[in-house]
Design a protein that fits this description.
208 residues, alpha/beta, globular, binds glycinamide ribonucleotide
Length: 208
Amino acid sequence: MALLKVGVLASGRGSNLQSIIDSCQRGEINAEVKVVISDSRDAYALRRAEKYGIDAYFVNVKEYPDKAAYEARIVEILKQYQVELVCLAGYMRLVGSTVLKAFPWRIMNIHPSLLPAFPGLHAQRQALDHGVKISGCTVHFVDEGMDTGPIILQAAVPVYDDDTEESLAERILEQEHKIYPQAVGLFADGRLQLVGKKVIINGGKKNY
Ligand code: GAR
């Protein structure tokens, strides 16, 4: 079976990128990461990619006249690697129409809350400030909104009275590293079907 060609956009540490690479390498999912692109020169995600011999690009937004031109360069790189699925992994920019149009319903994101609660920045702090007892993470398809696209997988974690933003983030991250590769694997196996706003998971025995 041919492996799904994945391109990853990341702005920082890249631990979610790592979890996808690990799953691919262990043969748990029918996918391979072909290219990693970052908007930050110092992103550790780029170093991780290089460590595995995966081509890594820094695309400097400041070198482009506008967002469309910046995104056109990103699309150019992704197409060069014949990417079939784009994974946002801690990519801290809103994806614009240039990338969206090039990869319709072929872009996923991971967000550290149970969407639609707490979209945008500092999701864990938002959860603590709100006093929720349960939080978690969400993998979703990306649409033009901020963390608004169709939900693919979610995982819940408890929120404790003495949690800090860091302790909650760490508990959530552990789940992120499980469900992001799972979602990529489901996509690779053609099991995700979009019906309106809902993502149906077809076939297989595993109950998500
Ligand atoms: C992750 O917690 C991810 O869910 C979050 O940034 C972190 C990136 O970590 N993403 C967002 O908040 C997007 N709105 P990583 O670089 O180690 O994968």
